[in-house]
Amino acid sequence: MALKSTIFKINLNVADMDRGYYGDHALTVARHPSETDERMMVRVLAFALHASDRLEFGKGISTDDEPALWEHDLTGRIMHWIEVGLPDERIIRRACGRADAVTLYAYGGGRTVDVWWQQNEALLAKQDKLTVKSVSGPSSKALAAMADRSLNLQCMAQDGEVWLSDDQERLQVALQTLQSAGA
């Protein structure tokens, strides 16, 4: 018998002063049985940082041809492809061929992201649509600790700083830009 996804209900309030975006989102997030709380919460963070009425979660970790999140225009064109984790360079290259913009949130703690970036930086630098951000290990672990089946989250972004809070704690998320699109 196959294991089923675990469903998380998240009420997300976004105040992104850097983008001038303010909104409330009632998210239903399915966590695949092989997905960790850490990966799921990095997906939620990515949603908060790119929130819009058209942004939606992909089918999940078991689907290679869909990202963690994406945004389509009214014609179906992929405007933004957002991935999380440490994917193979070929997946990112393919995403850059399909979408107007691609953002990757790399996480993994310790030196994991550093080693992955050293191995892939030269190849990914060729992708001018790609932005790569690294979520610090302590931040991604603290995000995982916030995971709950029913969650009220507030995200505030201002001057490049990102804060996430729930009913019990407030977390400053440490993000580092490794590559900017068009740079």
What does this structure look like?
This protein is of the alpha/beta class. It has one domain: Restriction endonuclease-like alpha-beta roll fold. The chain has helices at 37-49, 89-98, 112-124, 137-146, and strands at 6-16, 21-31, 55-57, 69-72, 78-84, 99-106, 130-135, 150-158, 161-165, 170-173, 175-179. Strands 3-4-5-6-7-11 form a six-stranded mixed beta sheet. A five-stranded mixed beta sheet has the order 2-1-8-9-10, covered by helices on one side. Helix 1 (37-49) crosses helix 4 (137-146). The longest helix has 13 residues, at 37-49. The mean pLDDT is 93.
Low-confidence stretches: none
CATH homologous superfamily placement: Restriction endonuclease-like alpha-beta roll domain
The H-and-E topology, N to C, reads as EEHEEEHEHEHEEEE
- What is the CATH class name? Alpha Beta
- The number of distinct β-strands equals 11
Number of H/I helices: 4
Strand order, sheet with most strands: 3-4-5-6-7-11
Helix content: 25-40%
CATH-scheme architecture: Roll
Mean pLDDT: 93
Query: Which fold does the CATH topology refer to?
Result: Restriction endonuclease-like alpha-beta roll fold
**How many discrete domains?**
1
Query: What class would the helix/strand composition place it in?
Result: alpha/beta
| β-strand amount | 35-45%
Give a brief outline of the structure.
With 183 residues, the protein is α/β, with parallel strands linked by helices. It has helices at residues 37-49, 89-98, 112-124, 137-146; strands spanning 6-16, 21-31, 55-57, 69-72, 78-84, 99-106, 130-135, 150-158, 161-165, 170-173, 175-179.
